[in-house]
Amino acid sequence: MAELRPYPFSSLIRRAFGELRSHQSVFQLPRAKFWSGPGDYDLSTTFAGHRLSSPLGPAAGPHTQMAQNIVLSWLAGSRFFELKTVQVKDDLTIPRPCIDMRTVGYNAEWSQELKLEESLEEYVKAAMLIRMLEESREIDLEPGATSCIWDMSVGYDLAGIQSPRVETFLGAMLDCRPIVDKLRQQIPAEFAAWRELDYPTQLSNTLTLSTFHGCPPEEIASIVEYLMRRWGIHCVVKFNPTLLGAHDLRTLLHEELGYHEIVVPDDAFLRDTPWDRAVEIMESLAAVADDLGLELGAKFTNTLIVENRTNYLPEEEAEVYLSGRPLHVLAMHVLRRFRRHFGLRFPISFSGGIDAANFPDAVALGIVPVTVCSDLLQTGGYGRIQSYYRELARRMKKAGARTREELILRAYDLSLPEGGHLDEAILANTENYVGRLSSDPRYHARRNSRPPRKIGSHLELFDCITCDKCLPVCPNDANFRLAHLPPRILRSRLQREKDRWILIEDGVIELDQKHQIANFADFCNECGNCDIFCPEDGGPFVLKPRFFGRVEDWEQFTDLDGFHLGGDDRTSWMVGRIDGRSYRLEIDSHELRFSGCDFDLRWKRDDPASATGTGPAEVDLTPAFLMDWLTNAVLDKGQPNYIQTLQGDPHA
């Protein structure tokens, strides 16, 4: 299994702006999917004293780990970024695949896959690139549409959070000037004017504590108090759906929603914080927050721990984590219970099955922020955010509302008095919305049990059906199109005959489709989501041409077939591993040199019959022509990609 690798900041800038100018897209998201602002509506609000242009953004998870993920979220319309949860144990082995979105949503990943220092730099890269895009005026943005919040997420115990490395992370998020100054120097010469741009130097002073399943209540309280007292950070405590208790949760999940096959283990309720202790935690921490002049909030909810009955996620994972539509109902019931007890004493953020249809309801419940994960893993990926704003605008128009506050007052026609109190409306909306959720068929098992359609064919290295579904469903933007080149690759071999080589042609590989698909290994964590939505069997992340950004990784991961492309303005070279065998191809304008473990051959550029060199009695040249075709496809300027932009970058 390969590992995620950060991408050089210089190459990231060139890729973003080069693609924007040549193809009117950024990281394969077309300009038509960019969000310029709310138009006739005012969605602005505040969070911990900071202004937000919109309350919508990605939850801590696969969409907030890499710089390009965050930029894609921003382009699509996110303005709140709950960054991927980090912890001191940053050498975890995450099971693969780790995401199963065939029906409701399950996952087996729970923490960052980069080193702490890499995560920090990814977040700063994203903030700086977004600032460049704003300043460039090459993105259409309405006035007031640029206010964002970057929210930290850490876990999972006090000792880890007090460790020197996590403390360094927290300090740098509060003051990231050294990293900004370092990255300024990596801005390419053609963008030199932006080296002096005013970049944010306090990336975040808010934090959502990821209280992982089984975190003791005393530990939760100690962590938050430490964060507030030591760092002066506004904190949100993320609770688990098990706050409902075993009886109420299982009644909702099994009897009302019909998910009889989803089994929550008994000890999940014993490991997690119970309701009365959650109340005590919030009460004790509220006193600390008040004393320090900080804001304390609650988030509903984390995923739900369930038995692994997916038949897709690794069998050795006895327990996995439920998300999607059933979690939406459970999380909203926890929210209602919390508001019935505390009223609006604490601000609430939310994550759990948010999609275009229920996003306006979450806004009408006064939730800030509204974060999303599972829905962005569906077909269309980040581009789905556009439909969130369309549906919100439709609902606001129907209610005669122009602002977020007016929507809260008018969303459900509850006959509130004109000029009625916003607090009264939020509480009434909560009761109204949550009260009818479990009877809504869109959340029932029978409406969420059909997996994406498979057509019965098996995926191959080339010539899939090119539906392109695998491109946007990858949260890391790892899958990409190859340029369309002459649609044939020569099959041939050389036979040695005394002191010369004889070329024997065995036909051609015909490429019939409009384009080909490849995979950038540096961004692929083998989560499996592209496999879920690919109509063919096999998985693009497994079977499509895999490119490594670093030759060291190609050399390290010997169990993976794949390629690495290098070179300069005069000569290109590619190393490749095909069916476990390693090759090297060197290409210039005059000749090709092709070598392997037992041969070294060269021939004139378009005349393989001119081959000279050493080797066994017969050498298969098909890999050479395959690698030559791939080199030309990757370097073709007609289709931008991450490998292309790496060439010649001194920071790579």
Description of the molecule:
With 652 residues, the chain is of the alpha/beta class. The chain has two domains: 42-90 and 111-305 and 321-446, Aldolase class I (TIM Barrel, Alpha-Beta Barrel); 479-646, no CATH class. 33% of the residues lie in helices and 20% in strands. The protein has an eight-stranded parallel β-sheet. It has a six-stranded antiparallel β-sheet with strand order 22-23-24-25-26-27, with helices on one face. A four-stranded antiparallel β-sheet has the order 7-8-14-13, with no helix packed on it. It is elongated and about 95 Å long. The mean pLDDT is 95.
Summarize the structure.
By secondary structure, the chain is α/β, with parallel strands linked by helices.
Give a topology summary:
Layout: H1 9-23, E1 25-26, E2 29-30, E3 45-47, E4 50-52, E5 56-58, H2 67-76, E6 80-82, E7 99-100, E8 106-107, H3 116-136, E9 149-154, H4 158-161, H5 164-174, H6 177-184, E10 206-210, H7 217-231, E11 234-239, H8 246-256, H9 266-271, H10 275-292, E12 296-300, E13 304-307, E14 319-322, H11 325-342, E15 348-351, H12 359-364, E16 370-372, H13 385-399, H14 404-410, H15 422-437, E17 479-482, E18 488-497, E19 500-510, E20 516-520, H16 529-533, H17 540-543, E21 546-547, H18 551-556, E22 562-567, E23 572-578, E24 581-587, E25 591-596, E26 599-604, E27 607-614, E28 618-620, H19 622-635, H20 642-646
Parallel strand pairs: 5-16, 6-9, 9-10, 10-11, 11-12, 12-15, 15-16, 20-21
Antiparallel strand pairs: 1-2, 3-4, 7-8, 8-14, 13-14, 17-20, 18-19, 18-28, 22-23, 23-24, 24-25, 25-26, 26-27
Helix pairs in contact: 2-3, 7-10, 11-15, 14-15
